[in-house]
Amino acid sequence: MTMAALKIMVVDDDSNICELLRLYLEKEGYEAVIEENGALALEHFDREQPDLILLDVMMPQLDGWQVCRELRKKSDVPIIMLTAKGEVFDKVLGLELGADDYIVKPFETKEVMARIKAVLRRSGADGQKKYRELRYDKLSINMETFEMRVNGKPVDTPPKEMELIYHLASNPNRVFTRDQLLDEVWGFEYYGDSRTVDVHIKRLREKLDGVSPQWTLKTVWGVGYKFEVKDDFKGD
Question: What is the pTM of this model?
Answer without folding.
Answer: 0.57
